[in-house]
Amino acid sequence: MNDSGKKALELIARFGGVEGAHHKAWVIDQVARILADDYEGFITSVKHGEDGPDTYEWDEGISP
């Protein structure tokens, strides 16, 4: 496993069990930042859908 994968798993292990959807959204966002080669491009693609570039939202969450 590469360093990025290790960092992502460490973050999940440390914060993944924190209660609250806003905190879990933060964990997901942080993992995406670690793993995505182009975070902004990844978010743009996630938000794009059948109704255009802002069909879906991306929640950065709140740090636990």
- Report mean pLDDT, rounded to a whole number: 97
- The residue fraction in helices comes out at 55-70%
Number of strands: 0
Largest sheet descriptor: none
Gap between N and C termini: 27 Å
The geometry reads as flat
Instruction: Name the poorly predicted regions.
Output: none
Structural class assignment: mainly alpha
Radius of gyration using CA atoms only: 13 Å
Individual helix count: 3
Strand content: under 5%
Taken together, the total number of domains comes to 1
String of helices and strands: HHH
Summarize it.
The protein is an all-alpha fold and 64 residues long. Helices cover 58% and strands 0% of the residues. Helix 1 packs antiparallel against helix 2 (21-35).
Defining traits:
64 residues; mainly alpha; 58% helix
Structure in words:
This protein is mostly helical and 64 residues long. It has one domain. It is built from three helices and no strands. Helix 1 (3-15) runs antiparallel to helix 2. It is flat. The chain starts with a helix and ends in a 17-residue tail after the last helix. 3% of the residues are buried.
